[in-house]
Write a structure and sequence with these properties.
globular; nine-stranded mixed beta barrel
């Protein structure tokens, strides 16, 4: 069963100056109506944050409960994206959960694409909380693993330059590993903690002084931009090929740098 939520509310993010590495944010308690095909019923759902990049979702309807663990990526423009899995598999649908919040329209969409969608609409009460922002040193092993996936799938993408389906399929794998919020389809070869998530979690004092991290952030930002531009709106196969070639060249160089460390 595929799930789509359209929820209207406003989220604001403020850095808490009195507590290091924390932000002011909200948990959400929501009530509304669940609809699927000819069924309409009352539902409630809660979104509870664990820290700035992890949360849980609990959905209640007709004496049933579905729960999911989410990985959150908060954007500079106050949008946020989340990916995760329902904790139990059902025969009615897949396990993968996608959640996307667009601040400019104040809409929250949850679920993979597909037919036979379940829809939930309602209002949410915000509960003020202070969230820790996890910090870590440079996780070189994890970064190297994801850079390898990006390098290999971008190479697969350009191996058959006349096959548009092959180029697009592996380019989606590539862009998902760079930033999981860029790609709608699931499952993907890389996990839901993308390279962007790893880089964002590195302590700021470390990342701003490390030449390698500065470089990989720049390459990742450029790659993310061109993925956004062409992945779902390409008109010519050359646009996809150039995207894959740019990514493959740069991430091959980054992988070589990591191998030499």
């Amino acid at each position: 069963m595929h799930f789509i939520f359209i929820i209207l509310f406003t989220i604001t993010i403020n850095t808490t100056s009195s507590i290091a590495n924390s932000i002011s944010y909200y948990n959400f308690e929501c009530n509304g109506v669940l609809r699927t095909n000819d069924v309409t019923t009352i539902a409630k759902w809660n979104i509870n944050f664990i820290n700035s990049n992890r949360a849980t979702l609990d959905l209640y309807y007709d004496d049933k409960k579905k729960s999911a663990d989410l990985r959150i990526s908060i954007q500079k423009n106050q949008d946020f994206y989340a990916n995760g899995k329902w904790r139990s598999q059902t025969t009615q649908g897949g396990r993968f959960v996608r959640l996307k919040y667009i601040n400019s329209s104040m809409k929250l969409t949850l679920g993979p694409n597909g037919n036979n969608s379940l829809r939930v609409n309602g209002k949410c009460i915000k509960k003020d909380i202070t969230l820790k922002v996890p910090t870590r040193k440079i996780p070189l092993k994890k970064i190297k693993e994801i850079v390898f996936i990006i390098k290999e799938h971008s190479k697969y993408s350009i191996n058959h330059p006349e096959d548009a389906d092959n180029i697009l399929r592996h380019l989606k794998h590539t862009c998902h590993a760079i930033d999981s919020s860029l790609v709608e389809e699931r499952p993907m070869p890389a996990g839901e903690e993308s390279l962007s998530d790893l880089l964002a979690s590195i302590d700021k004092d470390i990342s701003e002084k490390n030449d390698f991290i500065i470089n990989i952030k720049k390459v990742s930002s450029n790659s993310k931009d061109i993925c956004k531009k062409y992945l779902y709106s390409w008109e010519k196969i050359d646009e996809l090929l150039e995207t894959a070639r740019y990514i493959n060249t740069n991430y091959s160089n980054l992988y070589n740098d990591l191998t030499s460390k």
